[in-house]
Amino acid sequence: MPRDKSEVETGLTRKGFMPTKPGADHNYFVYLSLAGTKARASTKTSHGRSFDIDDSLLAQMAKQCGLTKKQFLDLLDCPLSREDYEKLLVQAGKL
After folding, report:
1. Which residue in 52, 65, 72 sits closest to 3, CA to CA?
2. What number does CATH give the domain 3-91?
3. Per-block average pLDDT, block size 10, for the chain (95 residues)?
4. Which of the residues 31, 38, 52, 75 has an alpha carbon 20 to 30 A from that of 58?
């Protein structure tokens, strides 16, 4: 099910993703751990006003963040906490 771009970006920043590269061709986000270190987990969204991100792009974003699509949606919707996400990143060797 498609998601509104602004809701995805808000969910990412709420869970520790920081916007980077201002003025770039896309809106880039990199995960900053609770300890303040950058993880090898990042993603991006297109510029523009509000629009929907389709399922295939959500799946690609999930992969970039080291998650399955379901885990990614859980991260955005809050069932997957930031602490639990960091545990998954450690297990995957991304943090």
Report:
1. 52
2. 3.30.920.30
3. 93 95 84 94 86 94 96 96 96 92
4. 38
Measure the CA–CA gap between 19 and 1, rounded to whole angstroms: 25
Judge contact between 49 and 80, C-beta under 8 A: no
Angle, vertex CA 34, rays to CA 9 and CA 85, nearest 5: 60
Domain ranges in the chain are 3-91
Tokens of 48: 């523009």
Backbone angles phi, psi at 85, to 5 degrees: -65, -45
Burial 6-37 (b: 16+ CB within 10 A, else e): eebbebbeebbbeeeeeeeeebbbbbebeeee
Residue 29 tokens read as 């986000």
Q: In what order do the strands lie in the sheet with 38-46?
A: 17-20, 26-32, 38-46
What is the separation, in whole angstroms, between the first and last Cα of the chain? 29
Q: Hey, what amino acid is at 93?
A: G
